[in-house]
Each structure stands twice: as structure tokens, then as C-alpha cells.
Amino acid sequence: MRIAAVDLGASSGRVIVADVSSGVITFSEVARFPNEPVRVGGTLHWDVLALYRGVLDGLAAAGPVDSVGIDSWAVDYGLLDADGVLLGNPVHYRDSRTDGVSDRFSGHSVFSGYSVYEASGIALQPFNTIFQLVAAAGSAQLAAARSLLLIPDLISYWLTGVAGTEVTNASTTGLLAAGGKSWSPQMLSLAGVPESLFPPLRAPGSPAGVIAPAAGAAAGTPVTVVASHDTASAVAGVPGAGNFAYISCGTWSLVGVELPAPVVSVESYEAGFTNEIGVDGTVRYLRNVMGLWLLQECQRSWGLPLEPLLAGAASAPAGRSVIDATDPVFLAPGDMPARIEAACRSAGQPVPSTPVEMTRCILDSLALAYRRAIDDARRLAGVSVDVVHIVGGGAQNELLCQLTADACGLPVLAGPVEAGALGNILIQARALGLVDPDLSSMRALLRETQRLVLYEPRA
Ligand code: ADP
Ligand code: LRH
């Protein structure tokens, strides 16, 4: 059977079509389109209609398929009015409207930072939906809103006319009770929104409606709910077995382990670990590391392509300067080289003086941040890790993979690059009865069919 995955990342959107039959999964990319934010009147927005057009064109290019599933980056949303019409362009999670909002809760008498963490299991990051809603309080748009749809649910609604709230992505709002079974009344009250703003929760694998005639060539195709948070799909698409850690390595690097239940200790809160919901009730216990965003933003300033930077960085001196790749100072767009230079200077380290030196500094810093995250996850969750899987676009970065193996002192298995789309496809394949339904069997299928590259740690 033919299955299409729509995978919208912060840097690009893609439509991937797979053929799945017993024991075989082959796929090809039929469309890729840029995801470029637009600043309007001082606010950074997603160009959601351009993305929707990319999805429609991609589905037309895909030809007839038996099912479509949609995933995207987390936390962001569109508000709909009483007629189901979008109220304004969704705001980008890197917009400054949330600056300082989450910090307000560190000293709040009723909602201390830890009580928010304990209730939701979600690390207090400035861009969480809950803090975006606090920042939007009192706006005419929020007052007029009758429903809130997370980005993949919005795309799915536009395609089918059916509204729902997919649970893995809903967990990133910070509004679900830890464990992800229901909305948290306390967190809804903190956000100042009623539960009725959210269409019914739905789980990966359930039907999401049928594409309407207005969608053109794809009309009549069933849409299946997948793990609509891209990281949830990517972790479902990690070809791991036994004691593994993962790095979902794209614009962000999401670094952690999969657990059966959340960890909400004070130590875990202080270490900035989140408990997002994955497929089949799993918990993604991870830390957000700024990821290849650091390099993408530098490249945007320099106007330089990736390949020569990576080639140069491979022979540049190692560990000359390192920055904290989890520091929120790097979250917003804008002159990244200057911010990295400032961080090196204030840490008393040599300031990288060329793009190649800065690239090396970024990659060394990412590898060290990965090691810290994996060590902390092991300690805080009480688990062992024997191998690190790197998936996503960054799995193609040979230098980063080798530096990660070296820093962690563990073997790294790199690939698949399109783990997000593959996780998306596997959940649909399971709903169609095409694969063994067990998550570990689905991962075994990826191990058997996808090319993985092994990096052994060097002394
Ligand atoms: P997202 O899903 O967030 O849009 P991706 O998973 O597509 O991100 O990863 C994008 C990143 O992958 C880029 O920032 C880039 O650093 C890295 N990348 C893409 N292609 C290559 C390549 N050929 N070699 C090394 N790295 C690559
Ligand atoms: C990666 C991602 C990540 C979130 C961030 C907002 O694309 O979904 O898991 O923390 O975007």
C-alpha cells in the first residue's frame, strides 16, 4: 500500500511517499519546500498558507495514496473563530512576545515553576503554548477564538474539515496533566483558557477524516492521526533496541531516552528535562539543545553554504572554544555570530575569527551538550545507555556524529535522516494492519531496511 507523510520541520516541509508491505518499506521524497518565517509589524509569524500550498502541491505530486499523516514542529497554533476561520497568522515560537513570561512563575506563590513542572511534566521553556497563551492574554484575537488547533491539526482540519487535538503534540502545550491522559485544570487556569477551546483529544492511529474536494487531486484520501509532534514521530522512527539514547538532530537537537513514565523530581526540573508524550504511552525524557539552528543562523548571516564549512571544520583545531548550546540567549533569530563571539568572550575563551572556526566551535559545543544531556538523563531517570542514535538532517553531518561518539564515549548509529517521516508512515502502516503493531518490531523493521552508519568513539 502507498502511504504519504507530510513532515513540516522548522527549516523545511516535505512530503514523502512510502510503499509498505510485509517486511519491506521503501520511500521517496516527492516534494520539499522552504519554511521561512515572516515578520509582520514586529511579530514573527509562520507563513502557514505557503506551507499549506506546499502540502497540497506535495499531495498532488504524490499521486493516489491509501492514507496521509501530518506532523510538524510543536507548541505553535492557530486560533479559529466561531465560523472555523483562522484568526491571523500563527505566531512563531521564536517571537519575543514570550520573553520573560515563564520566568514570572519561578517566584509565583500559587504556580511556582516546580508546581507547573510537577503538574504537566513539561520543562518550562519560554515558547511552550501555555506561556504563549499567557502572553496573548487580553488580545482581541484570543477573545474571539472558539478553538485552538496545533499546526498539524490545523493542516488536517483544512484538508478534512474535521477538528481534533493530537495527544503527543498536545503534551508540548504544557496544558496536559503529566502522563498525557487529560487536560490539567490547574494549567488551563494558569493559561486563562477554557478546556472547550480544544477539540477532542485523539491518539496516533485513529482516523482523522477524509480529504475534501476543495483539496484537489488528493480529495477522497483518508487522513490518519499520527504522532503529530515531529519529535514524537522521529523518536518512533529511531531504529533502536535495548538501552539506547536518541538525538533527534535537525533545527533543534532533542536529546534523551524513552521511558515508560514521567520523571518529575526537583532535580529533573532543575536540570531542564521534559516529559513529552510519545506513541503507545511512552515518555520522551529529553533536553532541548539549540541544535543546528546555531549553524543555520550563522550561515544566514554569512551567506555561506554548509559543505565547505563542514569540510573546513573537520581539520580545524578541536575544543578551542565551546559555548553552552542550551543557553536561551541563542533562541531568537538575528546576528548569531555576534552572540557566539560574545559567549566565548565572556567565558574567557578564544573568539572564533573565521566562519570555519565558528563552525567548529558550534559542533564541539553541540557534542558536549549531547554528552551532558545523555549523562544527566541516565542519572536522573536511572537508566543505562549503550548506544546513541542520531536521526534527522544532522545524521548526515559526519563530523558531528564522530564528535558525539567521542564526547559520549559510546557508539553512535546515524540514520535515518527522514526518521520523522518514517515514524509518521509506520503509525499509518500499523493502522492499516501492514506491520507488526509492537513499537519495538516497527523499529526492528527500520533497522533491517534503512542504511545506518556506525561511528565508534575514538580515544
Ligand atoms: P527540521 O526538521 O528542523 O527542518 P532537518 O531534520 O531537515 O531539520 O535538519 C536540517 C539540518 O540538517 C540542517 O540545519 C543541516 O545542518 C543538516 N543537513 C542537511 N543536509 C545536510 C548534509 N548534506 N550534510 C550535513 N548536514 C546536513
Ligand atoms: C522540533 C520541535 C521540538 C520542540 C520545538 C518547538 O521541531 O518540535 O521538539 O521543542 O520544535
Automatic annotation (TrEMBL):
Residue ranges of every copy of the Carbohydrate kinase FGGY N-terminal domain listed in the record: 4-237
InterPro entries from the UniProt entry: ATPase_NBD, FGGY_C, FGGY_N, Rhamnulokinase
SUPFAM superfamilies per record: Actin-like ATPase domain (SSF53067)
Family matches, as Pfam families: FGGY_C, FGGY_N
Keyword Aminoacyl-tRNA synthetase attached: no
Keyword annotations: ATP-binding, Disulfide bond, Kinase, Nucleotide-binding, Rhamnose metabolism, Transferase
Family the UniProt entry places it in: Belongs to the FGGY kinase family.
Protein name (Swiss-Prot/TrEMBL): Rhamnulokinase family protein
Organism: Dactylosporangium darangshiense
